[in-house]
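Researcher: Final request for today, and then I'll write up notes for the group meeting. The sequence and the SMILES for flavin-adenine dinucleotide follow.
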Amino acid sequence: MEVTNWGSLIKTRPSKVKEVFKVQDIIDVVKDPVQFPSPVRALGSRHSPTKCIDADSGTVLDMRHLSYINEPDETEMTLTVGGGTIYYDIVHFLEARGFMLRVNTEIGMLTAGAAVMGQTKDSAFPGEYGQVSSEVVAVKLVTAQGEILEVSEKNDPEFMKFVRCSYGMLGVAFEVTFRIVPLRLMRVYHKHFTVPEFIEQLADIRAARAALMYYMMPMRGLVVVEYRTYAPDESEEDGIQREPGVVHNKHLLPLGDSSILAVRNFIWAKLNPVTSRLLLSVPRLLSVPGFWLANNLLFSGFNFTASHRHLPAAQVITYPEDPPASTVFTFSIMSFTADKFKEAMTAYYKFVLDYHDRTGWNVSMMDVGYRLFHDDKSYLSYTDGGESWTIDPVTNPNSGWYPFLKEFNKLGASFGGKPLLNQTPLLTADHFHAAFGPQIRQFNVHRKRMDPDNRFLSTFFKDLYQCS
Ligand SMILES: Cc1cc2nc3c(=O)[nH]c(=O)nc-3n(C[C@H](O)[C@H](O)[C@H](O)COP(=O)(O)OP(=O)(O)OC[C@H]3O[C@@H](n4cnc5c(N)ncnc54)[C@H](O)[C@@H]3O)c2cc1C
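Model: Predicted protein-flavin-adenine dinucleotide complex:
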């Protein structure tokens, strides 16, 4: 039996796959190691590009049917959902009731269980974190003994740090409670830079009171910075209610403003993968000028995707379960503290050009990156060292990708780059321990106490955490 990730780039071969409809299904599986061999691994939408979905010879719990959303708790300002509920459904449910999550990460297929158990990324607003797990205030788990355990920020903030990003090694997350805030409109605009301009102006860019994402085109030496800010002035002028519980009327928005985000999402998630795949398939004589032209068009295209006001959920994208090969893309990520980022980014741009000269291979799509702020709410927070900036190479997958990644990982590690276990493929235990050593040792103590028989431990995590 084979289970694959989105786009079928990563495979695992479990002995059993159990669809989960209710909590008792999880308890029954966990308590019966004969029928359901170890490791027992809960999976969400399988959008991770790493072997964190590994359940070889074990049991996969398919969580996607455990999907429900309770009405928001307007006193506590929280929302509780089933572990298999996808992010896209959550943000639209909240929008219709006048609320939102603070992090509107693009991946609408992210399940609530994976959101608390795994690492995520998004550009952070000043005063916020940008990591979804830090927005989770409580989680209910089925433990390795088949018992129900509730952990919350209120009752045990220290242990909550180890539950966040524990990748199912402390238990299966079947119910998740998020912090919510009143709905606000956002605006988005872009600025274009050559690399020398970007480097020179980085201090000013950093000072912006905005959430910053950036699109990088190393083969052309270009960067586009996407600025997102809340848009309080206009919404107040328009009298659009932002009180908790008041249904927001999206038709009050001027024509086109939320749909401009759909154009942005289309460029990013469809047009870019399809055009770059097409260009990869034509002879080099045509593909080189083709990439040059496509990059210039994309670079200019951002001029037309500014939104004066849009609803936050507009940036959240769903992807088809079985995507056409032409739209499949893959990526990696590494995070650098703000003081190392300038050097790391300059080295990355040089590396991409050198690698292309040496091998003829280059990342075929726009790379991206995100600015996040200091966050120590999880033992695997990749921004616990302070404000951090990521580098995320993005490409159509082909045989050149993994050899490139091996060198990218070495380069990133040399600048203290921190990885995400579900989003940084080919990670080595040495690199992982260099990035998170003391936290891993503390986690291993909790893991051994919670799961002495390794019911939830897959080979992938055993090798990385170097635990037994
Ligand atoms: C096209 C695409 C776009 C993406 N864009 C973004 C983005 O914008 N931002 C971002 O942060 N990431 C992005 N990602 C990466 C993705 O968000 C993460 O890999 C995320 O973990 C996927 O969620 P999932 O539900 O598919 O989890 P899965 O891949 O199914 O699982 C991830 C890990 O969590 C564990 N897990 C899942 N559910 C549970 C549970 N209920 N209990 C215990 N453990 C569990 C799994 O065992 C596994 O180790 C993208 C991926 C793709 C393919």
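Model: Confidence is low (pLDDT under 50) at residues 233-255. The first strand starts at residue 3 and ends at 4.
Researcher: Thanks, that's everything.
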